[in-house]
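2024-03-11 09:14:02 DEBUG pipeline.ingest accepted 1 chain
2024-03-11 09:14:02 DEBUG pipeline.ingest length=387
2024-03-11 09:14:03 DEBUG pipeline.predict start
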Amino acid sequence: MTAERFRSDRLIEQACELVGSDDFGTDDTWRDGLSRLCEGFVSEARLNDIGVEIAVLDIVRALTSRLQIIKWRNDNPAVASQQITRPIFIVGQPRTGTTILFDLLAQDPALRPPLTWEVDNPFPLPQPDTYQTDPRIAQTQASIEMSEQIVPGLLTWHPMGALVGQECVRITAGQFCSMIFSVQYRLPSYYRWLLYEADHHPAYAYHRMFLQHLQSGVPGQWLLKSPAHLWQLDALVAEYPDALIVQTHRDPLNVISSISALTHHLRHLASDESSITECAAQSREEIVVGLERGMKLRDSLAQRVVDVQFADFIRDPFTTIRALYGELGRELEPVAEQNMRAFLAAHPGDGGGGRYSWADTGLDAGLVREEVRAYQDRYSVPDEPLK
């Protein structure tokens, strides 16, 4: 029965019926990723009954969004010529402060993050006069809260909200070349394809189409975020040569134990079978490859990347943000700082608490430390006490 639910032709047909169109655009490279993803859901993901429904919805939503965006571009050809100027990308390993930095900068009225509700439901176009009241906001929030009911504590691990900025991996899901799938689900073959074989350039081309679509309704200078960009800096700058890139840095060992625990927690949304040691093995491989690849790619980039140390940011966020704005050639306006301070006061965080432990990973700290030492030396990232 599971195999039947994940027949890609039937999922495509379902999305086409919902939209009333079968035009996915001229680039068909997304079909390879979809095929690999569906195969993984059947043979490797160990989905429970709820997980099957969630995974099907994820695929159909991504297909539907792609169809809607292509349809709108066909009906409004001027959208394709819209410029995306100097987008700001926050990159870096996961669990290195990328989310709170993104959320704080998103309080600046001069910056435009893609909000969760419009990423999940991009059509009809978002409109300035209903941007904070659109009915899709409540629908998206209800879906998020349902996830919390399925896995209590999920929002403590990874805060989400309909009116909060969304990561780029949710956008590139429409190309079916996205880490969002390999974190949320157990997909060993798919994640290795992403890491070693997949061509990510079409995913960034689709990313641009998605941003053009959203900004044709609500314009602004884009503020974007995803740790996944660290693995693909070459594809990012090929698509956005004037991008402003901010990379966060933290001891990779605590990153690995934190993201392993989060991945393990997320997978309980869809499966009754998840192993934190298996999540940790995947996280170690991805982090080590990502750091090595990121260093090599940065050597080849024409533009400079602004570095932010996690420890400095957590210790004194506004000194870090002022310095960051200076590096980006921006001025931190009083209203933006006031908004940021209010957001931080309302979302103080808990420092991770006791939610993760290196001992749970089953990994050898000495061996992993050697694998990441070159990265730490290059960016002066200090060792942290292992949690």
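2024-03-11 09:14:41 DEBUG pipeline.report The chain has a mean pLDDT of 94.
2024-03-11 09:14:41 DEBUG pipeline.predict end
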